[in-house]
């Protein structure tokens, strides 16, 4: 008999990853009800982020089956006894998880939480348990595993949002858009008239372009290999674009800036682009690395690289700020979003892999409220 036999168990649908590269299969699973500090969210939508695709493509099958997804948005169904600030019926966006106890969390720097990796990539709670263990699957990816009809989050990674904006639109704020915009605003603190290049104009890069425009940067140079994305970069605030299939990036940057760059936001993870970024920097210039690398600290004349996590954003402060900017017409991220039904998750992933869709957002079954079944655990 397992130790959670007295908890309510919910029947949910989730897209399960069982083998490297996918496809994800939508399966019926049993999920525990919320623990004292947890919140059960009925998901209305989830963005697909490149980190989901990377996990899928590099999954080691001996690690078992998991549920990915970390840009969820939905409606609160149930709360645990110790949850204070969120109640059933609230609309929430889910973001990354943090422990709330370590020094960094207490200093309001949750992106630097000492238990960040365990909480976001460990596919379990900190005590080693798992809300999906009855089904032999692991969840809790980024404290949410949002490729599902339901998710268990906590107050640390839930952000209450107003009910007058569609949750399908707000979902990608939880990771990609927060990371791109936060890098410019919080991590780099891009200055007015600072020169910026954004390498890779996917969702994260385009959020960085929009935030650079808000910061008053000039020039703002978008670099990519997809003409469609470059065109969008121009529309969203880039002053110049470089198609690096056909143009010499370094020469064009010198041409545009008359020297070098104060900031590069590097979202491609491509070593060639990384070297180009370093080579294009002004003295004191900074390269922000958004793909997990930490870079080097041995660059001349005060040049620096910064490994950035989640744009140093505190989700509960930063996501409402982005929503306010959106309402004011200054952060038009709706233009990046394309909606898919949940059952079409593999097509959405394929479209994102090819770069045809910038930010796929899955719509979970509208009938999920009716199909949520609850029974006493046995
Ligand atoms: Zn992400
Ligand atoms: Zn922490």
SSE order in H/E notation? Answer: EEEHEEEHHEEHHEHEHEHEHEEHEHEHE
Radius of gyration: 21 Å
The hetero molecules present are: zinc ion
* Strand content range: 25-35%
Shape: globular
How much helical structure, as a percent, in the residues?
25-40%
- Termini gap: 8 Å
Q: What's the pLDDT, averaged over the residues? A: 93
Major sheet, described briefly?
A: 7 strands, mixed
Explain this structure to me?
The structure is a single chain. The protein has 378 residues and is of the alpha/beta class. Helix content is 27%, strand content 26%. Strands 3, 5, 6, 7, 8, 15 and 16 form a seven-stranded mixed β-sheet that branches. It has a six-stranded parallel β-sheet with strand order 11-10-9-12-13-14, with helices on both faces. Strands 1, 2, 4 and 17 form a four-stranded antiparallel β-sheet that branches. Helix 5 (176-187) runs parallel beside helix 6 (203-215). Mean pLDDT is 93; it is low at 1-6 and 367-378. Bound molecules: zinc ion (2 copies). Residues 49, 51, 70, 175-176 line the site of one zinc ion.
